[in-house]
Design goal:
homodimer; 547 residues; alpha/beta; Rossmann fold; GMP Synthetase, Chain A, domain 3; five-stranded mixed β-sheet; 27 strands; 31% helix
């Protein structure tokens, strides 16, 4: 019998771009390729296909049909990958839940998604028990507990038990490519989480365009068939940047690390020969520190695509010292997420500068920088404006929030709220978040630039620069520094910055009058520095350890 | 000023997949990258963009508007590339004309395309003069004559003169992605040429999917940013397999060889460092012979994607001896054309076998083999059936030929008329054309297999096997051989084949009773062996030099 996924005979030559098509060819071409989960479980692509069929079949038996929503709450796992395919392929919607949210936010997210089924890892059993009474629409709970039937009551079933009940054959329907495939909530630092959604067409186009961009990158900056892939961005977060779909389409070996524990990550890298990952700078820093503390010298070859926040030069160079090739990408929850990828081609620009900027827009992306009145600004790598975007995979709206949606799409372009410059070759450099830009004495101060420069001091581990209200200057920059040792103090940092002022690389007024020191910076649920919290603390006068 | 293509403000977040988007990012990222035409002309991507704008602007002045058709008749050139973009981007339709057709066929093709403008190279002036009186709908002729104003009369203008009259700025419209972008006629071996067409959506999806497939191939089998590309399949033929669109999207250096002259091709390879091309086996053979006769030993690194006809093992191995990496692809005019690409990954299958088969379907392609009643046949690399396809870039119909269109899409799948087997990993091997299969004594004989085996004899340069009517056997195979020297004769070939019979690799009844010798085989206008002509000759009893 042909090894293939069932396809409805209703599909004619009006071909729909469906998530289905990402899976089918790869499973065929690489049936024995492996998908690994921690040190616990290994399965082949052939088994992935069977389990996707079983999951869809079992969910159908539970009453899930086209248009229904299934919510998912797991660490990064092979099971998460199964839901990435099975749920959208059924015509249902996958809601990926950020398990780091508060109970209140979780209730808000799951309820607004209209989910009728929740799949959750046993690690989240307590919080699920807490929110369950507030979610009457949830009629079925699927517990991930490795066959341990801890399920409580008739509305709960264990994931592996459920799969056993399903059929390894399932006939997936064909439907319009604009059907919603996934939804999740952005973890903005203001207000309630906002729901974004992506259609099958958007996921397929994102997968193709990012594959075209990544596979054609220079050696050491690329993702190709012979790589081993391990995500280090949570799978609830914009489909782990869409890379699991790409890895599957190419038939690449995939390693899912579950909960991010440094020892486990380093162990998997070594034992499974992981060669491509992606993460926020904080996770990269965590890995480098863990390796250092364990006395591991070389981590390469390991290409690490960095997003979420700017990739500091100091971190990029620390990574390279460990034989790890770190390059920046740019995107956001609303943009699917991939928009641009850095690329070093040896064209005069030094390697660190080339790899630390947001980089070149990937195929089909249109990028512009605009002023307040949407006037298009020149591309000279200097002039800064808000980065606005068009691409076929940008979210169409925030579900149910007309006002925010209109603001997002003002003038027919998606507004990133990032301040950027673009060079004459179209390469994007992010200068700051609009909200984080500091206006001091009538001049713009880039918090990102200051952070970047302060981080270049060898005694600095982490830093955040925020604006605080000031009667004289309007706002003034304050730097909050995490030092590596006791030798770092305010005067050392200021002296360090003065060198850049003297060299003409930093505006004199940008040097923070106040530099505070702390043990660690608050981070958001996706690992970015929580500047909102810092600003609130500072403006309330509750600063941490003063210098 | 930002270096960018003008984009209409009417485009909102309902993003249309337009050919426009293939061009814009690349031109930005690689403005100084080169496009070379023979030893005559060099231009940058920046100039490409300006010239595309000028061409569109000038064509608009000539009255060309959305939905109009512009016919193109040139050798492979930078100007052809300009029409690939400018004409579809205007919303007009590019008709690529096969200049090897007879005057009668040319009239048929140009008339049925409803072209109002014809762009043609001076080399084709005589034939254009001959067909012109029969094409009253053609109201404008654009002559490619390198500024030599040989234009005859008020309806004719020279191409470079025309571009000078155009503006380097042009605001391209945004329209539905399903608008037709290109048309051309398939040069089938039976009946009138049939018109196929491709939409913007189809071209964009083909470009993305083929890029994803080619860029992620193993080293030496891939097309990536640092390659230098030269087409060796005419640009009138299915957009030179779509590779000029891919090369442009990736910002790759492109070399256009004009008329295919072996000395020029070898010279360009060397001087421009060409590293990726594609062609039919005949052209590869021509290049190898030319290199041999000039005493050139190494031709590599040069990756050559082979399509149109099967890639014989003997030719693949001859290519490798010249440091040229030849791999097969599979496609047809109706399929956009790319469907599958061979890949050697060292997984047990030997390199030549892996690289000579049609290979793995590229992303989004669905392939099946079916029997006479459309029953799906098993994938065991042995069972053979007609290869049928689905992909988002298959032509929807033969324009104006309902019956042929229905036959093409019988049962909702595109019928290739190729007999194939598929292995358990989805890799396709083409066994024969349906029309070329020989039924002898109730058994199927594969003409392709016989040709492949006969070509393995070192004394054979070229061969075709066709069936001729036979009272006793129904049909019997006849081989027509082009020898390399006088030592090859019927008995030598038969003895050579007998080895394969003895080894169990060839059915005894497949050994041709009759083997004829000739100086050269007739070829179709795209370089395939014209078996129809051979069959007619043989069945009329007009054989060539008898053995």
């Amino acid at each position: 019998m042909p090894v293939q996924l069932a396809v409805s005979a209703a599909e004619t030559h009006t071909y729909q771009l469906l998530v289905h098509h990402i899976l089918e060819g790869a499973v065929l071409a690489a049936p024995e390729q492996e998908i690994v989960y921690r040190d616990r479980h290994r399965q082949t692509y052939r088994q992935l296909r069977d389990r996707v069929n079983r999951l869809a079949s079992a969910l159908t038996s539970l009453g899930v049909s086209e248009g229904d929503t299934v919510a998912m709450m797991d660490w990064d796992s092979h099971r998460y990958l199964e839901t990435y395919f099975a749920v959208p392929m059924m015509g249902a919607v996958l809601q990926t839940v950020n398990f780091r949210l508060s109970a209140e936010q979780l209730i808000y997210c799951v309820r607004s998604s209209n989910a009728s089924v929740l799949i959750f890892h046993r690690d989240f059993a307590a919080v699920v028990d807490a929110i369950r009474p507030h979610l009457p629409e949830l009629r079925q709970f699927i517990l991930i507990a490795d066959h341990n039937d801890l399920a409580s009551g008739p509305t709960e079933i264990e994931y592996e038990t459920l799969l056993t009940s399903g059929s390894p054959q399932f006939s997936f329907p064909v439907f319009d490519e604009n059907a919603v495939a996934t939804t999740f909530h952005t973890t903005g630092t203001t207000g309630n989480p906002k729901a974004v959604s992506f259609s099958h067409r958007q996921l397929v186009l994102h997968t193709l365009a990012v594959t075209a961009a990544l596979a054609s990158q220079p050696d050491g900056q690329a993702l190709r068939r012979d790589d081993v892939y391990m995500p280090l961005t949570p799978m609830f977060h914009v489909h782990a940047w869409g890379i699991p779909y790409i890895a599957t389409m190419l038939g690449i070996k995939q390693v899912y690390p579950g909960r991010y524990e440094p020892e486990m990550l380093l162990g998997l890298r070594q034992s499974e020969k992981v060669s491509f990952s992606h993460c926020v700078p904080t996770v990269l820093q965590m890995i480098l520190s863990a390796a250092e503390s364990k006395g591991i010298v070389g981590l390469g070859p390991w290409t690490m695509l960095i997003g979420g926040s700017a990739l500091p030069r100091s971190l990029q160079s620390a990574a390279e010292s460990s034989c790890l090739s770190a390059l920046a990408g740019y995107g956001m929850s609303e943009s699917g997420p991939a928009i641009a990828i850095a690329r070093y081609v040896g064209d005069g620009l030094d390697r660190a500068t080339a790899l630390c900027r947001a980089g070149y827009p990937i195929p089909l992306v249109q990028a512009q920088i605009v002023g307040d009145d949407m006037q298009v600004l020149p591309w000279d790598d200097k002039v800064q404006g808000e980065l606005v975007l068009r691409a076929p995979w940008l979210t169409a709206s925030y579900c149910g929030d007309l006002e925010a949606s209109q603001s997002l799409w003002r003038g027919g372009w998606l507004h990133t709220q990032d301040i950027a410059s673009i060079d004459s070759n179209g390469a994007v450099t992010i200068r700051d978040r609009i909200k984080d830009v500091i206006k001091s004495g009538g001049e713009w101060v880039s918090s990102t630039q200051l952070e970047e420069l302060i981080l270049q001091h060898p005694g600095v581990r982490d830093v955040a620069v925020v604006g605080v209200a000031d009667q004289k200057w309007g706002e003034r920059p304050v730097a909050i520094v995490v030092g590596k040792n006791e030798f770092i103090d305010q005067s050392v940092v200021k002296e360090h910055l003065q060198h850049f002022v003297d060299a003409g690389n930093l505006n004199r007024i940008a040097v923070p009058a106040e530099i505070l020191f702390t043990e660690s910076l608050p981070k958001t649920s996706v690992g970015k520095t929580d500047k909102k919290q810092l600003r609130e603390r500072l403006n309330d006068g509750i600063s941490s350890t003063d210098a």
